[in-house]
Specification:
Layout: E1 16-18, E2 28-32, E3 47-54, E4 62-67, E5 73-75, E6 89-96, H1 123-134, E7 153-157, E8 161-166, E9 169-173, E10 176-177, E11 181-182, E12 189-198, H2 206-213, E13 214-222, E14 225-233, E15 238-241, H3 245-248, E16 250-251, E17 261-265, H4 273-276, E18 278-289, E19 300-302, E20 312-316, E21 322-327, E22 332-338, E23 341-347, E24 369-370, E25 377-380, E26 387-390, E27 395-400, E28 405-416, E29 421-433, E30 440-443, H5 448-452, E31 463-469, E32 472-479, H6 486-489, E33 505-516, E34 523-534, E35 539-545, E36 551-558, E37 565-566
Parallel strand pairs: 10-21, 11-21
Antiparallel strand pairs: 1-2, 2-5, 3-4, 3-6, 4-19, 6-7, 8-9, 8-12, 12-17, 13-14, 13-18, 14-15, 16-17, 18-20, 18-21, 22-23, 24-27, 25-26, 27-28, 28-29, 29-30, 31-32, 32-33, 33-34, 34-35, 35-36, 36-37
């Protein structure tokens, strides 16, 4: 049972104990500093009286007497024949000295069908057992004076306990939560296995016991109930149900191998992903066979009950459940712009606990950090059975220590056809707990409000103009790239390529989008430009010239300004 104490006893003030841990299917030695009145001159055969009962209960002890071999004694929990090894059991041991030779007695392999009193045919043993039963106090401790005896040892026998290996880690006890799988990013295969089963035989030979004794069943959560999908039938010792439900969109074939379990999704069955999506529980069953003959050859005397041997006990272990979740889509919902279209949908972005998160960001940064690299992400389109692409222009992230969450801001480029204006827009700020599985939106993106109202974002002009050129009056609105925009600083394509220089820079030809006053449409306005940066004012000045380099007008704007002002 998870959290149970693994008992390992050493000598103390008592004169009896066990060497090592008490595990099902394993003989453990009983050590004793035998009292001085024990028959050390004789052949040294003693009786070990064992009592077992379900932990937390009182009375009703199952009592067995073991005949030791010489001075040494051993016990094995298998020989108790308890009805349910999935529970912890109380164990006590006490050694009595019969004071003479003991015959072989009746072993467990050939006499279990007889009445208990007929199993003891050695009169000396009968006398010891009778005196023991007649002279125990309320705690089950022998206090008689007829036979020399040791103190009483008390301990626990813990049930088998499953430990997993997953994602490079071993010795994982309790429930196992697998990383969330998405139909956008996979992975297509999720592998895990039983590392070993504690408190059982073959604990050192992990695979042997696991392969023979552990089976898995797959259930799907449906509201407050569990739906059987592909399960192990202990009574018939076989698997039932459908190992490839939803037309094979999800596959549980390989959970039958406890040392190499795999859950898979099939990207050729995308049309069934919406049905297959959900939360699953993979619950182990332990099969345990109590075979006393496999562990001892010593004579056993059953004082007050008929043991339960040679039956396979099968029981599910819900405290070792494996949790698997398949999400149809991704783990982050956003608006973004691609291929001349705004769409809302989901992408999958690695959560902080994913190993691939560090491909983009360092986990420990408290300040905003830019992404190490940019990748395109497959993106669903909400309300449609199709996907598009999210192409980030930039990404940044930080860790908020006092809230123990990571914050992620995503950006994209948007080109407005009216003004031929390219801008970078925020897709929003998202946050996720350090061990979370989904990014939740914290702050809306730049245009989310308009987009939610089915409105196309309308970018305004950046300057009001009123000047004469070639004898014509130009009065209206113009888009001049702002200093903060990439079109202002880039040196490639249809961009200005201006820098923060305290000297005049020139651009030999640029097309502005100009909207005459009182009109809806725009037209191209071809001009030549000069630019100067005044560091003292943190201000840019742009001068407009006609194609003959005749001066037309001048405009100024701060480096972080939102509008150009005509001088």
């Amino acid at each position: 049972m998870p959290g149970g104490i693994e008992l390992k006893f050493k000598k103390s003030k008592k004169n009896i104990g066990v060497d090592g841990n008490i595990r099902w299917g394993v003989k453990v030695g009983v050590w004793a500093d035998y009292p001085s009145d024990f028959n050390k001159a004789g052949q040294g055969y003693f009786l070990i009286f064992a009592r077992v009962r379900e932990e937390g209960t009182e009375g009703g002890d199952k009592i067995i007497a073991y005949r030791t071999t010489g001075w040494n004694g051993e016990v094995t929990p298998d020989l108790f024949g308890v009805e349910d090894i999935s529970k912890p059991w109380y164990l006590s041991l006490q050694v009595l000295d019969p004071g003479g030779h003991l015959q072989s007695g009746v072993g467990p392999s050939n006499e279990l069908v007889r009445d208990l009193e007929q199993q003891i045919h050695d009169q000396r043993v009968k006398d010891v057992v009778a005196d023991y039963l007649a002279n125990c106090d309320s705690s089950g401790t022998y206090v008689g004076t007829k036979y020399p005896h040791t103190d009483k040892f008390e301990g626990r026998i813990l049930p088998p306990e499953i430990y997993y290996a997953y994602d490079g880690q071993t010795n994982l006890g309790g429930e196992l939560k697998l990383k969330t799988v998405t139909t956008l990013a996979g992975p297509d295969t999720t592998a895990f296995n039983v590392d070993y089963v504690k408190n059982t035989r073959d604990e050192r030979d992990r695979n042997q016991f696991t392969n023979r004794s552990v089976r898995f069943s797959a259930y799907k959560e449906d509201g407050g109930t569990l739906e059987k999908i592909f399960w192990y039938n202990a009574k018939e010792n076989n698997y039932q149900g459908n190992s490839q439900p939803y037309n094979g969109a999800i596959r549980f074939d390989e959970i039958q191998s406890a040392t190499n379990s795999k859950i898979k999704i099939d990207f050729n069955r995308k049309e069934m992903f919406s049905q297959a999506a959900g939360k699953y529980r993979i619950i182990p069953t332990i099969n345990y066979y109590q075979d006393p003959g496999a562990d001892t050859s010593y004579s056993i005397y059953y004082a007050n009950y008929q043991p339960n041997y040679w039956n396979t006990q099968s029981y599910e272990v819900p405290e070792s459940t494996v949790y698997y979740e398949l999400i149809n889509g991704g783990n982050l919902e956003l608006w973004s712009y691609y291929n001349n279209q705004f769409t809302k949908g989901e992408i999958y972005f690695p959560t902080p606990s994913d190993n691939s998160f560090t491909n983009y960001f360092n986990r420990e940064n408290l300040d905003w950090q830019s992404a190490k690299r940019l990748d395109n992400f497959s993106k669903t389109i909400k309300g449609k059975n199709e996907t598009t692409t999210y192409e980030p222009s930039s990404m940044r992230c930080r860790y908020v220590a006092d809230k123990k969450v990571y914050q992620l801001e995503l950006f994209y480029n948007y080109n407005d056809s009216k003004w031929n204006r390219a801008v970078e827009a925020s897709a929003g700020v998202f946050q996720c707990a350090a061990d979370g599985s989904r990014w939740e939106r914290k702050d809306r993106g730049t245009y989310d409000n308009q987009l939610e109202q089915n409105k196309q974002p309308q970018l305004g002009s950046t300057a009001d103009v009123d000047f004469m050129m070639w004898g014509n009056r130009y009065k209206g609105k113009v888009y001049i790239p702002l200093p903060s925009e990439s079109t202002f600083t880039d040196k490639s394509g249809n961009a200005l390529g201006f820098e923060k220089k305290g000297e005049w820079q020139t651009k030999d030809g640029f097309n502005f989008k100009y909207q005459p006053e009182g009109q809806q449409g725009t037209q191209d306005l071809y001009v030549k430009l000069k630019c100067y940066y005044d560091a003292a004012k943190d201000e840019f000045t742009i001068q407009i010239y006609n194609s003959n380099w005749d001066y037309v007008a001048a405009f100024t704007c701060k480096s972080n300004g939102k509008q150009w002002t005509q001088q």
